[in-house]
Amino acid sequence: MKVAYWPGCVSRGFTPELHGSMAQVAPKLGIELVELDRACCTGAGVIAEHNQELADTLNARTFALAQQELAKGADLMMNICSTCQGAQSESQERLDANKVYRDHVNETLAKENLTYQQGIANKNFLWMLVEDYGLDKLKEKVVKPLTGLKVGPFYGCYIVRPADRLGIDDENPRDSYLSLVIEALGGTVIDYAGSHKCCGFPIITMKKEASLTMAARNLGDAQDADADCIVTPCPLCHLNLDLQQPIAAKLTPKPLNMPVLHLPQLVGLALGLSPKEIGLNKHVVKPTAVVDWSTSVIAGVGAEGGGW
Amino acid sequence: MDTRKPAQDFTLRIRRYDPDSGEAPYWDEHTVTLEPHRSVLEGLLQAKAKYDGSIGVRCSCRAAICGSCGVRINDKPGLACHTHLEEALKRSKDGKITVEPMGNMPVIKDLIVDMDAVHWKKINRVTPWLIGKTPVPEREYVVDRVSMVDVTQTMACIQCGACVSDCLSMEVDPGFIGPAALAKAYRFVGDPRDAEQQQRLKDLAEDPNGIYNCTHCFKCVEACPKGVAPMNQIMRLRRRAGSDHHIDDRNNGHRHEAAFVTLVKQGGLLHEAELLPRSYGGDSWFGKFAPKAGAELVSSLPVITKAVLRRKVNPKLALVPHKIPKQDVKAVREIFDTIGSREERYELNLYVVGDDKDLEQPVAGAVEDRSTT
């Protein structure tokens, strides 16, 4: 399987362990990543807030670059960032809905000899795992089942709302895919109140206390539900939930100590990669429970535990 | 919806609470017998008529137009009169239809919330009436079709409070003006007849509980039974305030947006280490040296230190970020320049033009967002 791969900005910036773990996990799954290294930031909703046409044109450019790879044999375009998925889906909705608008945007892209053709399969790693790779195949790849590890899903807003734009319906319940993946990897799904709520990141520079209160409540909910860790497909959520957790903890009466894993890291653990190989040592909140679990499992695959 | 199916039993699990009684809230279950296409409201009214006349529920039109019967059904906000029993049962986790009062507002009794205390107070906050331009024309104000169709989206609001009920910013910060009131504000900011657009925008941008307090979670978009999409209207208020009126608010809203746009234009990718200080200190390389940026840096120092020690944040990358190849940076900058040089912003408003699939003849979808300055 080959994908036109969009890692986003944050996975190469403040969450390097996300990009790194995806690079480790892909060959284990037999997925070839063809990185879209010429593509630019999706705008994360902020550029659209400034100028909608600008955001749509930048995203159309990325789609056009991806379509060049699709023409060479890639199966689909894939990202590892919920926020990128949401921003790209919003642009794609407008571009696909209206030919006049699409032609107008393509006029701007013509200077680079690029054209966005209506309709592109652009999927987050989570969606791709369930819909294209397949959970049965994923189960076959598991060498170190997450037996006994209690994992709370945390989606991030951009990948679950609005449902119609993101193709979520009874046939494709994408807002429950994290649970399906956790189960496929052998883990225990922890349901908690905050799983589909907002991490607060979009207002971190505008209303810091409200932003971190959101993070604190979601982390507290997961902790109260007895999760060992939570997993998210969104690096921006990771920033508020992991990087900012020590500050968020001051806004809640209960002490917080909730590890936050990126989705490829969780998959990597089950595929037998060591905590260090998937960058768990780079987290602000040490995923001690996860590492303890990892080192306690005798998998016989030669993966080193620990490695802080 | 098949209306020929025979009546069947539906169990309603209703949250009961009377603050005046001094008793804690409790769950009350009643089984009603109705055809599956009937509404949850009809189920509630049957339970009230047959089993317990004290169940508190608001309703009026039963046709999804008065907004009275806003409740939460299976943990999602909606109109009880607009939700089929069969659909609600399909969405239930345990075979029972759970009905609760709306969130983010105090409960008066059972399913009745105090709309005055939250919803109407916030609606009144945004001066919810047109302030006409002067001189008043001899006949009527003439509004172009596109502008009028545009504001009909916000005029479709029936004041049910579903968006307020689900707003995640209000959940942690009850002071937030909120989605319903801000959508109402756009109804006048987007109306070419209004004389106070600049003042309205300045007011809502400067208020710490205003447009920059929306966390962009899309909850209100999902909640609204009338397609108002309040969050979209809030983003348009931001676009008008920032891009058209250049309102430099005290909440870092416009600075954050401007810094984000500048940094992506410069390198093709976002440079987070530079974005954060510029959001506080201003959109330039010197922004990080502004007192506000310094104060934020100091308060974040423990976290930054930890992130550097763990090698989550690479100091080298913080100074020299990832960039896309030079020729692509150049191409991206050209896109910025081309679009930035347009005399008017070009926006596609699908609410106005619809989808090509819905139309025999595609039409151009430009909504001209003109500055009123």
TrEMBL record, chain A:
The keyword Oxidoreductase applies. InterPro entries: Cys_rich_dom, HdrB/HdrD_reductase. Keywords: Oxidoreductase. The keyword Oxidoreductase applies. One of its GO terms (molecular function) is oxidoreductase activity. Residues 3-86, 154-242 form the Cysteine-rich domain. Pfam families: CCG. This is Disulfide reductase. It comes from Paraconexibacter algicola.
TrEMBL record, chain B:
GO terms for biological process: respiratory electron transport chain; tricarboxylic acid cycle. The keyword Iron-sulfur applies. This is Fumarate reductase iron-sulfur subunit. Its EC number is 1.3.5.1. NCBIfam families: dhsB (TIGR00384), PRK05950.1 (NF004616). Belongs to the succinate dehydrogenase/fumarate reductase iron-sulfur protein family. It catalyses: a menaquinone + succinate = a menaquinol + fumarate. Residues 202-234 form the 4Fe-4S ferredoxin-type domain. Residues 10-103 form the 2Fe-2S ferredoxin-type domain. Its cofactor is [4Fe-4S] cluster; [3Fe-4S] cluster; [2Fe-2S] cluster. Keywords: 2Fe-2S, 3Fe-4S, 4Fe-4S, Iron, Iron-sulfur, Metal-binding, Oxidoreductase, Tricarboxylic acid cycle. Pathway: Carbohydrate metabolism; tricarboxylic acid cycle. GO terms for molecular function: 2 iron, 2 sulfur cluster binding; 3 iron, 4 sulfur cluster binding; 4 iron, 4 sulfur cluster binding; electron transfer activity; metal ion binding; succinate dehydrogenase (quinone) activity. Gene3D superfamilies: 3.10.20.30, Alpha-helical ferredoxin. The keyword Metal-binding applies. Binds 1 [4Fe-4S] cluster.
